[in-house]
């Protein structure tokens, strides 16, 4: 279940209470009159079922509560209340299947920002992948897969396409189109340094056996990307983040980027091209799968674009 908190001016108090009382999946409504300072007004809270969240938020936005005050949602891990459980039972659907659009949009927006932290994680993942390649170490490559932060922008792009949100799509594309070239360029520079001191050579790339799957691109690569992307999006919409680790290990986005940079610097252009193709296939497959999951799965009432602002 979710903890809903609404801060609104006093003149919206009755309208907000009316919304909460009309929804079957709402319990434990609290009103703190005059508790809010900015804006000057009231704090209203309630426990709501995930299945009812989209309808509740839609009606609150129709009151302009998000502009005149604030609407926040917090996931409740443990709720010991017969009244709350009865409200959840009355709500249509199952909590595990409930897609809360505002929650998903907020999460993907935060994870798709081109920040210094994002660039550092992506660069470290590419460097780790490069080391895994030149040492032919499967364990190191898997570590790079888990470390890579690229699924956030890919998920955001899927959400943006489904909900037709241009700003979110631009944010995700900037993170991907700027982040990967920077990470690959730094990997290439360090590869040049390694070649200059004699640590790396063309034979290093051609002797790879354990991790040669990185540049073996084909139809299976796209299928794996589709399955991993679908699993990743399901883990996001159902708030089961533990499944994301399996998603990261399934796809070869970061390893392909790192291998492409290493192979290009060392002069194996065939492997570099195949690794770049693997990267593209995985990125496209994950986004396509994310869109399909959002379009095809039962998700209650979608949020109209006018209500999302």
TrEMBL record:
Keywords: Membrane, Transmembrane, Transmembrane helix. The chain crosses the membrane at residues 114-135, 141-161, 173-193, 213-237, 244-267, 279-296. Pfam families: DUF389. Coiled coil: none annotated. InterPro entries: DUF389. PANTHER family: AT15442P-RELATED. This is Putative membrane protein.
